[in-house]
Design goal:
single chain, Aldehyde Dehydrogenase, Chain A, domain 2, Aldehyde Dehydrogenase, Chain A, domain 1, 495 residues, globular, 39% helix, 2 domains, 22 strands, binds nicotinamide-adenine-dinucleotide, alpha/beta, six-stranded mixed beta sheet
Length: 495
Amino acid sequence: MQSRVMEHESLNKYKPVNCRHFINGAFMDSLSGETVSNINPATEKEIGRIAVGGEEEVNLAASAAKKALQGPWGRMTSFERSSVIRRIGDLILENREELAYLEAVDTGKPYRLALEMDITRAAHNFYFFADYLTSMGTEAYQQDQKALHYAVRRPVGVVGMINPWNLPLLLLTWKLAPCLAAGSTAVMKPSEWTPMTATKLAELCSEAGIPDGVVNLVHGFGPGSAGEAITTHPDIDAVTFTGDTKTGTAIMQAAAPSLKKLSFELGGKNPNIIFADSDLDEVIETTLKSSFLNQGQVCLAGSRIYVESRIYDEFLEKFSRAAKEMTVGDPFDERTNVGALVSREHYERVKYYINLAGEEGGTIITGGTAMPEGLEEGYYVQPTIVTGLKQSARCVQEEIFGPVVTVIPFDTEEEAVGFANDTSYGLGTSIWTNDLRKAHRVAHRIEAGIIWINTWYLRDLRTPFGGMKESGVGREGGAHSFEFYSELSNVTVKL
Ligand code: NAD
């Protein structure tokens, strides 16, 4: 496939990178020399090789990370640590075009989206935690005239970070920035499908002045490979994981014998509840994003849309018209709204669910499994809207993680809340209404960690982020991230 309009000619100077491990401040191949192919999902062509690490590489990385806790890193003041962390943010922005290019060729997402969302937010993760570190306080309690109690914070130690492929740099930095701010050290594993920006980040951390051994990167797969080795390693004190709910269960089991501290951000099947008294134009504009942004591969995607019956037909007409107008195609074409799905395996999975929707009695009112017009290769799926499914259908209950949404009408507030909560997940929810009381009332009844009223994906990094039910364990963001990446000791002084 030829790129129709390359967003910037200057991007031609960037090249995909071969991904090697970064351990104790240096890049290295796997001890076995093993590599796998890295495929560009928009062209289906190999764009590089990825080192496949396992137990041996994780051993080296964990031992470097453990040693680094006692080295110059452990002796830095919080102001020194904060300025190095801030410098990583600066370097990300200085290299933003190259990072966005790498993210786009690795994931298939539109270059412009990578530039404006993934890379910009990745830099802000470092700025936010650099500031947070120098402005936070600690807990202290005075117990009458008897005693003074205060909490002392120290790094949790070596943290294993296991990452998914949908927002590779953004989610990795959401873990690494608070880890460094807390003074801990890292053994990171990116997804085997999208390892490029993590590799570049390791280089930038070193350039920013992070001492050797503090940030380590091991590439590889999950079970029986680098991922599993991280979850069982005795010198890794905590594991933070973002990915599929089933993988979360496997990691919890593997980590149990060594009682590691765990933080999980897992899957979602998030309701988007639209009441008749909402502002429909605003609803459509945001619902297009919550349905199809990043090809629908967003854990917070509002993939179950519930619309009050009174406006159901009008909503469907406007929403499907807008979805049909979206441009699917080359991630480097500036007109593209929807790029390629991340891999052949995932592409087949999403198409399986679209076919299943038909078998379950659904009607595909736009989209489907056919290749979008004008495209001959690449893992492309058109924005797909399914109606007529029962609440119990698998396509309504299971996470598809692609540009596929279901739309179901409801009559009452009670019914909407019932539908929304009728799932094993509990990550995000959007509620659309101009009735203030109804908005709060419904928000308080929804079983989800993140609830938006008249918006979607609006984030402030100080707020608690995470899921309930099968969508996660623990919360991240501001003080919550700090809790995870540090240990607290209480000191009591008898007065
Ligand atoms: P995945 O669980 O298949 O893989 C994630 C990572 O885990 C990869 O690096 C993989 O190599 C590793 N892994 C797999 N099995 C492992 C094992 N047994 N032990 C250790 N590591 C293992 O998930 P994915 O397909 O990469 O990502 C998509 C999923 O991530 C979706 O379910 C999505 O909702 C979820 N997600 C959640 C959030 C959130 O904040 N809640 C954010 C993004 C993605």
